[in-house]
Each structure stands twice: as structure tokens, then as C-alpha cells.
## 1
Amino acid sequence: MGKEGYKLNINSNEVNITAASENGLFYGIQTLLQMIPTNQSDYKTFEIPSVEIIDKPAFSWRGIMLDVSRHYQPKEYIKQFIDILAFHKINTFHWHLTDGIGWRIEIDQYPLLTEKGAFRKVKENKNPWQEFELAASKTSPDTYGGFYTKDDIKEIIEYASSRYITIIPEIEMPGHSEAATFCYPQYICKGAKPGSGIYCAGNDETFIFLQNILDEVIELFPSQYIHIGGDEVGKEQWANCPKCGERKKKEKLADEHELQSYFIKRMEKYISSKGKKLIGWDEILEGGLAENATVMSWTGQEGGIKAANSGHDVIMSPIDYCYLDHYQGYNNNEPQGWGGYNGLKRVYTFNPIPEAVMPENRKYILGGQANLWTENISKTEHLEYMLMPRLAALSEAVWNNEKDWNRFKNNLDVQFDRYNKMGYNYSNSSNTPMIKSCNIDSINQSLSIELYTELDLYPIYYTLDGSEPTMSSNLYDGSINITNTSDLKAAAFRKNKQVGYILELPNLLNKATLGTVSYITSFNEKYSGGGATALIDNKFAIKRGDDKNWQGFEKENAEFIIDLGQEQEIHEFNANFFQHIGSTSVMLPSKVSIYTSLNGNEYTLVKDDCIAYNPFPDAFIENINLTFDKHKARFVKVIAVNTQTLPSDHPRKGANAWVFIDEVSIN
């Protein structure tokens, strides 16, 4: 059964859990807890089924990473977080304690790391990493931060240990270290700007500084592993640094990639000398991998495959399956996420062992891990929302080699009740209705829509008049046929309560739906939105730059003509535009102008509207609604003016600006 396996026997007389170690007994108890009915008013008496379960995990590393650098979480909540992990049989807590904008661990020899490096200045309409600046005072209203004392960390380690969870600390190097290098600028390259965030690889004092830090970290944490990051290192300043140049020459290093490898190998030897093992993100493969290093493969599975096939231990954590800061639903009401889409089912299908790993090398795959970065996550409610129920999917993916989606999703029906009872703010995104298909019948002038939810467990009810759906509304039975302009709203219901968000699709089958679009300026092929019908196909893009329904125009105005097919009386134009300053180059247009024509040759301006610049950094959709006097027209020309270049307060100032548009309606 191994260290973590157990046998659970329940009959009419007793509950018996047998295991080779306390770890196994603990997991047997977690299984028993999951069998207790959730509909109890009290737990003085209850019934559980007679059963025999023989169970053990497929992988020894079942991990979750929590980033507390971007947004700090207090000690007491870290304990609650550990309880959540233990309940899901996670045995490794990877604690991301340092990064560019926050140092969260007390280091006696370098007190400025927490006295200054743990506190940043909050700036209006700026994400934390934009124009990052250490706070002048810990107590000023515009200060954000916090850190863990050594006593805090000892207490948390003991708490985790009692739940059979190992904590792996991460101390970032050689990059992602702005806070640290603002506090101790003597460890950056000559000529680099203050707080550049990259340690000088040519300065021996840099290594002494980091070794002294690691000495204190190693003394605190009993874990076998120390994570040093090693990812996303900008190497330009190394290329221009005299000391780094001397280092390359002395060590016969071909380039900055090999210099990074030198840096990691040197730190790996030091960590090994302390009886510990180094873990780094898969960029530590660049320039050659340190002899005893373990690779955590995040950029994909390729790095992990390469490392395992060369005989190195690997933890699989690929971004496409394991990043829980990514969105988990297609709905504009989803809270701000980062990156792309990692739905519940995708997480569940995660397999830590890719086929490309040779059979004899699969022993080097220690397991898998999900990562929860907190660029956009400051509140514990949001953190739990992003974590659950995807944590349940990840837990099963790294515990059990035999997956059964239908069994898992049906078990989630009970798990939701358990989450409710435990007071967790879990996500119901998997129950939010989404569009499966949307087909226009131009002959019968109708629209047929099919809906689905990811779990497909609960009934969907809908309305076509824009009112909120209830269980007295229309019951969805496989398709919705629309013959008049309608505002569709749909929601799923579980135990007489709405679950998930409402799907909202306004102006379906409007006057533009049966028309055709011709372009005066061409859209960018990378962001086609689906081609020439994208703007009038009744498929609505959501507030993510990677949504395939957005149609993009780089540095050029979005100019197009909609042919309504015949003269019609019109008085209103509607379109959605996207902006996300924090992560993209997509800006709202500065002006939208509407022209109409009867013959397609002579156009008259009927309305234009200047759009004020909005510096809000997060993603949002702006619905531009323009009304004008009723009149007959067949052709509608639209010009959405591109700002062409990004403004001076944009993170990518001076670069080409984009306009993203989707779903034009005319009434």
C-alpha cells in the first residue's frame, strides 16, 4: 500500500482503517469524512454505507502552489488554506514567498527585505506591478503589504505537518526580485536601473547574499526541497554588465543562457551541500541543467519530458491544465482572471505522465501540481472561488490513474453540498449556460440556439424578453428557436436555486443578422473573430483578449459596411468593444461614427460619439449604443477610430494600438 495507502472497512459493527503509516490513516479518515451525509442537522447520529475500500495514490507529489507575493494572506488564512488542501488529500504546499513586488519571509541578516520589501505603494488605476514602488511608510493609507515572522512560519509548518502536508518554500532567483534589489541594490549589475529585479551573475557578493538567505530558510523548513524559481529571467543587463562578461570569459560560457545555467548550478551545489534538493521552473534547462536539480515544468510538458528522459526528477505543472488563476467559465460576470481558460473538465483530464516520456523514465515523474498566482486575487473569497472545485479535479488527477468524468461530475453534486456546509466560496462556473451552437436560417429568417453547461447535471430555464429566468420560465429542451428580435437570458437551477451565472444574449436576430458585411479596412487574420460574418453571427465575445469571437484591427480604424439586404427603418446601432490595458494593447476606439445610405454610394453621417479615455487597467467590455432619428436605409457604414499608438501611461506606451469589436446589432 505504500506510505499513503489505506484500507477502509465499514460494516454494521465497526469502522476499521488500516495503513502502513499515519499518513495512510489520515487519508482513510478523509475518505470516511467524505462519506458522511451532508443533509444532517446535527452529527450525533448518521448512517454511512457498508463498504470496503482499498486505496493508494498514483503519485507521491500532489501539490498546490500559492503566491503570497503579489497579494499577502495572513497567517490564520494560510492555516485555513492548508485545511482545504488536506481535505482534498493534497500533500505538498508550494509556498511562493518572494517575487518582484513583495518579500514575505523574515530574514534576520537582511532586515530591509521585510521592513521595506514587504510593503508597496498602491497607485490608482495601476496594477501592483505597474510602476512598482516600495512604500515610504507601513502605516500610510496607500500602503499594501505584510510578511511572516519566523515564529509565524514555524507555527504554519507545524500545522501543515499535523495534516501530513510538506511545505516547499520558494525564494526567487536570479529574476523576479525587484523588491529585494530595491532594498539591496548592490547585488544588481552595474548600469542596471534600481530595482531591476535581476541579480548580477558576475558578482560573487550576490551569491554570498543569496546563500545567507537560504541558510535561514533551510534552518526553518524541514522539507527536502528548496524552490529557487529561475523563470523568466531578462538577460539584457547581463549582456551589458562588465562583471557578467568577465564571468562568461572565466567560466568559458558561450552566452547568457549558459550564464543562467552557471548561476543555477552554483546555487544547486550550495543547496546540495546543506542536504537539500533544488527545484526550479523549466527555464533552468536553458544552457544545461544542474546535475541534481528537479524540474517543475510549467510552460508546457516539453521541459518535463526532456528532463525526465535525461534522468532528472520532474513535477508536471503545465499552464494549459494546472494554472488556477486562469478563467474557468465563459461569462462576463467571471471575476478578473489571468491568461486563458482552464475549465473544470480540462483540469480533470490532466495526466502528469505524457506519452513522450519513455517507459523506463516514467519513474522520474514525481507527480503534478496546480498553481494559484495572485496578480488579480486579493480577497480570500476570490482565492477560494478560483481554487474550488478545480482542486477536486486536480486532486483526483494526481491521486487516481483511472479517470471517469461521468462518475466525477456526479460526485460533485454531493461535493457542492459539502462545500456549502464547510462555508467555502466555491465556483459554480461549470453550471453556467454556454452556447453550443448558433445557426441562422436565412430562408425562414430564424435563429436556432443550442446551450450546454460543462457539468450537464441541472436543468436550464430561459426567457426571451430580457427578464431574469426562474424555474417558472421556459425549460430548455435541447434547442431554442427564435423568430423575432429577442433578449435571451438563461440559467441553471439546482435544488430550486440558481447556480452559476446568467447567460445574457441581447438583440438576437436583429436587423443586421440577416445582412452581409464588407470591409473597408481588413481585420487582422490573427484576430479574425471567425471571418466576414463574425460581427453579426449572434456569438458574443467575453472580456478576455483570447476569446476567438473578437475581431481585431491593428493601428487601423475598424471600417466596414453592413448591407441589410433591403431598405429598412432603423434608429439604433449597438456594438461591443474590448479594452485591457494591464495585459494587452487593446484600447477602446476614440470615436465611433455611423453613416447610412440607400444605394451604397452616397452616405450621410447620422451619429458620431467620442469615447473618453478610460485608464482602468483590468479587462472590460464597453457597449457603444448610438441612437438617431428613425429613417430608411439599406447600408450602414461604421468607422471606429483607432488611437494608433498606446498612450504614455500604458505599460507598452508607443506600441501599436488595437481595436477589438464584436457583435454589431442594428434596430
## 2
Amino acid sequence: MAPVTSLSDSVQQQLTSAISATLPEATADPLLRRSDRADFQANGILALAKKAKSNPRELATQVVSQIVTGDVIKDIEVSGPGFLNITITDKAITENLAARYADTDRLGVPRPERAGTTVIDYAQPNVAKEMHVGHLRSAVIGDALVQLLEFAGETVVRRHHIGDWGTQFGMLIQYLDEHPHELDHKAAEVTGEEAMSNLDRLYKSARKLFDSDEEFKTRARRRVVDLQAGEPHTLATWQKFVDESKIYFFSVFEKLDMEVRDPDIVGESGYNDMLDETCRLLEESGVAVRSEGALCVFFDDVKGPDGKPVPLIVKKSDGGYGYAATDLSAIRDRVFNLKANTLLYVVDARQSLHFKMVFETARRAGWLNDDVTAVQLAFGTVLGKDGKPFKTREGETVKLVDLLDEAVDRATTVVREKAEKVGLSEQEIEENGQYVGIGAVKYADLSTSAVRDYKFDLDQMVSLSGDTSVYLQYAYARIQSILRKAGDARPAAHPELALAPAERALGLHLDRFGETVLEVASAYEPHKMAAYLYQLATLLTTFYDQCPVLKAETPEQVANRLFLVDLTARTLQRGMALLGIRTPERL
């Protein structure tokens, strides 16, 4: 199917032509905004009038005289100091929506003529450690961006940069060798969450000994050298940790209803063979210099409390490699091997300085430039109801699996309360409880701008009212119920029919779906997709209140309103899927 030009784009094209005819020297691309009456206004006139040193209202009147009303524009008038109020014809709204309706896969959303390749780094758990609430945002935001970018036409390469290398593994392996009884035979046989709980317990014990016993610390560091050298026993034990951790990771991501594929997991260890060359290239080019035995990169604008420069340490004075060496090697791999145009990192805001320094280093080395860019989508913290970092009552970090299980339990209770009225089976109740619970967690995260902190409040998240995923899911299910009750009546567009105000408002918002998808994908702002969908569901509620569907006055009006609600359902379903949220048919 051919992409559908949105009505706002059609109007803008006419406005641009009219302005060019009025002011041939103008190169303006007027900005459009929507009023509460779902009309369109051009606020570019004021800026143009200032440049042309003319009266804005007079200029607006001249522009209006150049516009032909009829097929798309029903009426245009000048208001205020020079705003243009533009009313779209009912016929144009219905015809545009009919074209979107015919495109069942993409709803008329265009693909860019020149798509690029984006490598997105997200969902970065650590081997031998349980995932906690702090891992939620990177996974949820990253997965939504993958869906949005792919739908917008971008080639997306997923990368999960798991923590699977370094001092902590020498520490853990050495501790296990010295305390084999702490991983008994029964524990060695379990997998998934229970196995990861055992590993996490061992890690905490090893860390406690590492911090308190200098002799153990020395032995653990020697074990790191063995690991880096590929000593068979050490490497085999490390591989077991990695394999067991992956089984656990997959189980958590499955709870989150996310696809994570093994080839996409390229952790810190995946770049080991590149570290030495990365350091050599940086030093030979003069980007990195030796300072007190370490290989460092300095920045004029990064200084410590004492006013002295704080460097990015690429290689430590003892010969060990820092995180910077791994991250810079990953950039080289993604740019030169994966041929990426954009590197997108969904990483905690607390690491912003590190990535600022890493990206600047890569630019100085020539690995990043005007054609290849790196962006950190920094995200805020998950807070409890009290506005403080989310913890258990004992002050411990909340396990991610516990949080997800509780969300599903709460949602299942909500679904069960309405199950008898809808006629849901026990299997449907449990399945919908999963969809609603996980959807609630994702939507609460995604409906907030990534850079902001947000409060984790399950009571609010599973509420049937307000800006929640449940509200959107019920809107979709309600439409499905209407379509099932329609009998022989079928959705069909009737452009000849006049539209009620609520129909116009709903239709104009539906027509904005394509431009919203592309705006959200290009700016990496999934919260704006959530806002679009919430407004769509709100307009649908107003439409229900004011416009009977199955009891409309004529068969043509019934068909046209069924067409409107069916397109609304398809848009809700597609939009929610782009956020990684499912929409049950009955709820």
C-alpha cells in the first residue's frame, strides 16, 4: 500500500504555496498547530510579517486569497493578529481515514526514503546477579524504541551489553573454589530464578570477604589474570556462570513479554580481543596520553573538586583495562563491523559523564563524525510512593521478578472482578492478568519522559481510569465488543456523510498517527506515543457519549461509525504494540 499523506501535511503544502505566491522571496515552512476545535492554525505568518516588515493581519489576508477551498480545506479565516483558522472538510477526513483503513499492516504510515542502521544498547543485566527494579527502565524503554524504530523503517541491531567480565568474576570464582560447600549438590541442579538467587548469595559473600581480607583480594586478582589468560578451569567456571545467568535473564525478559535473542547478547567479554588495539590506536593518534603510568584522555571541561582535570582512564597503571576501553571497542565494532549510522545507549542518567567522555574520545579518534553519531538516552530513577528510591521495607533493592509477579497478581484481581460480566474463562482471566499487569508496569514507565524519575504505584497503574494502560486496553476491548454485536452491519467509509463534532475530533486525531510515529521514533520519545494513545482513548470516550454506533439513524451512518471505531481499535492495537503492550480482545 502507498503511504497516506496526513491532512496536516496537505494543508501545509497549500499554505507553503500560498505564502510563496504572496512573498516570492519567502522560504518559510509554516508551523502548524491544532486548536481545541481540531482546526489548524498557521503561526508562521507572524514571523514572516516581521521579516517582510508588513502588517501580519494584512499578510494573512493576502495568503488566504491565494488558497482554493473545496476538497481538503472547507473554510479559512484570519483571526487575531494574523492567525489562520482552517477547517478541514468532512469528506477529506473520511477519505483519508479510509486510505489508512485499507492499509491493514501500516495504517498508511510512510517509510523514510533513506533509512539508516541504529545499534541500540539496552537491557544490560549483570552475570551472577539478580535483576532488580533498577534494570526495569533500560529494558522497557529500549524494547519500545526497537519496535518504534523498526516500524519507522530503520534497520535496528540490538545489543545487550551484559556485565560478564572483570574483577568480580575473579573474586567469585576464587571464593567458590575456596568454599565449594556453599554451592551444594542440590543447588547445582536448579536453574532460572533459584539458581540466580544462589549465585547472588555467593556473590555477596565473596564481595564481603574481598572487601575485608587483603590476602583474599590478592588471590582474587590473580584469578582475574587467569581468566583473561584463558586458564581452562577458571574459564569453564566463568562460562557456567554466564550460561546459568542467561537462562535466568531469558526467564525475566519472558515475564516482561520481551524478545531477547542470544546472538544479541554481546557482553564486556565480547570485546576482549579489541582492547589492546583500541588503546594502541588512541595512543598513536595522540587522543590518549600516558599519565602516572595510565593511558588517559583529558577534557578541558571535566575537572574535579580540586580544579584539576579528571581523565577518562582507558588503561590502568597496572595494565588492566577500564570500562572506557570496552565501551570504545564496542563503538569501533558497531561503526566499522555493523556499519551503524547511529549508536543509541539506553543507560542510567548517573552514567552521563562517562558516556560524554567516551563519545568525545571516539569523535577525536574519528570513529564518530557528522555521519555516525552516538546518543545516550539517559533515564531517571524508579521511586517508591514516598518519592524516595524504590526499596523493600528492609531497605533492600526490590527484585524485578517480585515486582512483576505482584503487578500480575494485582491485575488478575482487577480482571477477575469483571470476568463474570464479560464471560471470561479461568484461562482468559490468567492470560489477561498477565497482559494487564505487565502492560501496566511498562506503560507507567513509558508514559513518563525518560529523563524524569517516576513513582512506582501499582494501585494507580492497574486503575481502570486515568492515564493507565488498563484504560487503553479496555477501550480496545470495548470496541471489539461493539464489533461482535454489530451482526450483519459491517464497517464501511461513507465520505458523503456529515460528521458530528466528536467524529471530526476523533478522525483528525486518527489521521495524526503516522506523523506521531515518525516524530516519536526520530526523537526517541516513547512517552509521546503514550500521550497520543491516551488522548485517542479519551476522544473515543467522548465519541461514545455523543454518537450512537449501532443505533445510529441510518445504515450508512452505522457503517461509517463502525469504520471509525474499527480504525480506532487498529490504531490503539498498533500503537500499544509499538510500546510492547498487548491488547486483549475481551476484558
